[in-house]
């Protein structure tokens, strides 16, 4: 019998193990499918998403050093509309856990992003099956906690 590494986070989020792939390093997970299925880890933290699309910085954006990798990608991302309408419905089909990473210029932008991701996780529609998915409900609960804290 192999030991269980199942990890329970507050608000009902359960991971199969405690290893999460760092934000941005594997985009939204799809890019890694030919190499390693993100479902073999606890999950991935997605590349940061903002209210509006961001092109990121001009090249060069990555530089190897003797000590590791320097990066200044500039939080390139397609924006929350595309994330919710295209990316999340696609990766929901692939069956791995993810935590959506959000980036904003103001507290209001952070709150809007959290609200929209929360709505996505709990709405009817293409991802309706997620309503019964404890992991997705857990993510929504996490977001609800954040929006409540704002009063
Ligand atoms: C190609 C690349 C893209 C990244 N994109 C993001 C991102 O979109 N959002 C974010 O919060 N961090 C991003 N990061 C930062 C990584 O999450 C971070 O470097 C990683 O956690 C390692 O932590 P350290 O740099 O403190 O060692 C990115 C890193 C790399 C190398």
Chain-wise SSE layout:
Elements: E1 7-9, E2 13-15, E3 20-21, E4 43-45, E5 62-65, E6 68-71, H1 80-92, E7 98-99, H2 107-122, H3 134-149
Parallel strand pairs: 3-4, 4-7
Antiparallel strand pairs: 1-2, 5-6
Helix pairs in contact: 2-3
The protein binds flavin mononucleotide (FMN).
Residues 22-25, 47-48, 69, 71, 73, 75, 101 line the site of flavin mononucleotide.
Low-confidence stretches: 124-131
Number of strands: 7
- What is the highest CATH level, the class? Alpha Beta
Spatial extent as radius of gyration:
16 Å
Helix content class: 25-40%
What string, H for helix and E for strand, traces the elements in order? EEEEEEHEHH
Alpha-beta classification: alpha/beta
Name the average pLDDT.
83
Distance between the termini: 47 Å
Overall description:
The protein is of the alpha/beta class. The protein has a single domain (20-149), classed as TIM Barrel (Alpha-Beta Barrel). Helix content is 30%, strand content 14%. The protein contains three helices and seven strands, in the order E-E-E-E-E-E-H-E-H-H. It has helices spanning 80-92, 107-122, 134-149, and strands spanning 7-9, 13-15, 20-21, 43-45, 62-65, 68-71, 98-99. The protein has a three-stranded parallel sheet with strand order 3-4-7, with no helix packed on it. Helix 2 packs antiparallel against helix 3. It is globular. The N and C termini lie far apart (47 Å). The chain binds flavin mononucleotide. Residues 22-25, 47-48, 69, 71, 73, 75, 101 line the site of flavin mononucleotide. Flavin mononucleotide binds at residues 22-25, 47-48, 69, 71, 73, 75, 101.
């Amino acid at each position: 019998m192999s030991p269980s590494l199942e990890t329970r986070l507050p608000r009902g989020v359960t991971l199969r193990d405690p290893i999460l792939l760092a934000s941005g390093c594997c985009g939204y997970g799809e890019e890694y499918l030919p190499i390693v299925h993100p479902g073999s880890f606890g999950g991935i933290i997605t590349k940061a998403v903002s209210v509006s699309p961001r092109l990121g910085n001009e090249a060069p954006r990555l530089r190897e050093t003797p000590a590791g990798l320097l990066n200044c990608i500039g939080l390139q991302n397609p924006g929350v509309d595309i994330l919710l309408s295209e990316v999340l419905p696609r990766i929901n089909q692939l069956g791995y856990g993810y935590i959506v990473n959000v980036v904003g210029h103001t507290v209001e932008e952070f709150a809007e992003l959290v609200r929209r991701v929360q709505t996505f996780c709990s709405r009817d529609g293409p991802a309706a099956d997620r309503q019964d998915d404890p992991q997705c409900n857990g993510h929504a609960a996490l977001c609800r906690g954040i929006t409540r804290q704002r009063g």
